[in-house]
DNA sequence: AATGAATGAGACTTCATTCAT
DNA sequence: CATGAATGAAGTCTCATTCAT
């Protein structure tokens, strides 16, 4: 294990904190260094530029999230079961990693150089995974025939925006309540099913 | 009529363009002025600061969107009909005003001074409107009993993220297709209803 | 008389006001125009540049002061009488025209282009006048033989600094008291004369 | 010892130079930095704003001058002796520190924020010291009974304006000559005493 | 390796001046 | 004439990055 006092990790953590609250551009390297308890020069022994930290944060965050989700659903059978798990775990993950969620939402678009490739990454990689699960479910008859890319994107948007707006989730009770609502909405829709029997 | 050549409008339009593609902080007043075909100094005769333009853009945009949506659903009867219209029109609106959508998504969070109050605005104002429609539908038995705030937020997230990700929507055919998918998803859910006996 | 509504005079008066309180560089043409109740453009129909107003202010002020003083002492006979009048009237004049006094003190040095020539003007013109009076007094035996340029400069410095520091001179009583003090000081010095024998 | 190459001192010295010749407002930070042989950014690592340098210059200058003068007269006995020393040393000091003298004269008035408090400083602190010496002299009968505040201010004005106007003092001979003139003027006045006896 | 002083490119903003109305 | 909208040069200040210690 790289025993450099964990400076690199401290810098990444500090950057995530301030980026997610102040935004990338409003954050100075000085602030990151101070919060990481390292000298400003030290910052540059670990990362070539400020933007590079953002890249790493997004890259690592997305990768980690992907692996986390992957692990959660690998053993599950059936698309419905998988999607239920995805919805639950993604909500949980974003709730537990709100800063990352904010970072993705705010910084993933509108960056020129390299980071714009992450708009690709998130689509190509994460959403594509959702899409595959959905496609499989459709093929196997568990799910209705809908445009899988749109559904995957909608699922992601639903969960991330809810996780973002719900900052004041202090009790896990509330999180469970929200999760149940989203599950019902996503799988069964909001419409009251026609209770057929009254029509006899 | 204020016949100043529409300079103020030109500046706002130019700012929306560049803010939405490059981000607020990566945009210089110079760029805005050039794109608006005015001198840099002129910018400051219309707006006191660069941030003030962002405020106006968000404020006006949100207000306009609210009124637009309001107008579209006022005459409709029934919560389902209203929500169908909301979904359709919001998707259309965000598609027609992608820059505004991007701006809201990116800049509405993480601004300190005044603009943070817009995080309030969008929640309190727009989402609250959705919430009320949903609540009414629940009370009147058209919709299932779900947490209305969560559903409202989810609907907003679904539509805005889909509108954002789907940049390459050139044909309106595609937009209609996407809309139909979201309608189905939102109202009926993704699960294949159990056709219990017809399989014999 | 140039009946342009006295705009030119209003501009000069306004400029004197703000220059003397805020300094030349901290004053905007806008402020001058507003205080003069004219449009900003009008300013430039009367004066080619902002600095030109300063020049005129100093030029006119110095000229006017010179003529005023000239008039006060022309008919007086004897250098002592003339210097007494000069001291009294200059104190009075600076008290009545504090803004001008402040302007001279602050802006007469350290201007490049033309206005630096006014450092010359004030020396060559005004102080030289004092010097001549003093020289004459020395020649005629009324005054002691001292370096007249230094004495003239000292007199000017004495009066102007006292007038400047004594902003709170609201009562003319106080002004008379101060004048008397300066008269005594300048003409008789501060030393208690040795009353060597009269005490017998 | 703070061996930073004396950058801070170099900046202060450079600023004094240019402020005193061009005036505070006509001086750019760029000019100061260039003359101090440091980068423009370095200026801001030592001082938060351009005005802050002016404050420091005036504050330090006034303090130093006060201590210098204090040291020169502490051991002297008698008010006349002290005032003679003050006049001599102040003239010398201003002659040796003409830039500071110009700065005080030009910038001490007409600054709003903090620096205006220096108008207080110089009056309250320095002139008050003069005043006390004079008061003592009056009480002890060495000096004539005159308004001490006015006399103190007049002395200061006399010396500073003479020091300021006499830029071309290259030879120390001239300075001594000027000093003698001021001493005579201040202590004995300009009037030729009536030599009564010759009239016999 | 770690640091922070030094730096200059570049951003925002002001304001003297012009000019079409 | 009078006006104020328009303008860009220029100034203050920030901050990512470098580099000597």
How would you characterize the overall build of this protein?
4 copies of one chain form a homotetramer. The first copy, chain A, is mostly helical. Helices cover 70% and strands 0% of the residues of chain A. The radius of gyration of chain A is 20 Å and the shape is elongated. The first copy, chain A, has 2 domains: 1-48, Orthogonal Bundle (Arc Repressor Mutant, subunit A); 49-191, Tetracycline Repressor, domain 2 (Orthogonal Bundle), CATH 1.10.357.10. The longest helix of chain A is centred in the N-terminal third of the chain and has 24 residues, at 50-73. The interface between C and D is large, with 53 and 54 residues. The first copy, chain A, binds a DNA duplex (21 and 21 nucleotides) through residues 4, 7, 28-30, 33, 38-42, 44-45, 48-50.
């Amino acid at each position: 294990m790289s025993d450099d006092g964990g400076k690199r990790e401290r810098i990444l953590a500090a950057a995530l904190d301030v980026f997610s609250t102040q935004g990338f551009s409003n954050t100075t390297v000085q602030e990151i260094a101070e919060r990481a308890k390292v000298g400003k020069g030290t910052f540059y022994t670990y990362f070539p530029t400020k933007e590079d930290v953002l890249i790493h944060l997004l890259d690592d965050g997305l990768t980690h999230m992907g692996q986390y989700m992957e692990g959660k659903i690998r053993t599950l059978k059936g698309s419905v079961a998988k999607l239920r798990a995805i919805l639950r775990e993604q909500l949980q993950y974003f709730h537990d990693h709100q800063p990352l969620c904010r970072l993705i939402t705010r910084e993933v678009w509108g960056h020129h150089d390299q980071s714009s490739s992450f708009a690709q990454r998130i689509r190509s990689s994460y959403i594509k995974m959702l899409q595959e699960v959905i496609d499989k479910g459709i093929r196997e008859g568990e799910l209705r025939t809908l445009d899988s890319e749109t559904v995957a994107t909608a699922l992601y948007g639903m969960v991330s925006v809810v996780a973002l707006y719900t900052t004041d989730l202090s009790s896990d009770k509330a999180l469970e309540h929200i999760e149940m609502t989203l599950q019902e909405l996503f799988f069964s829709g909001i419409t009251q099913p026609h209770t057929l029997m009254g029509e006899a």
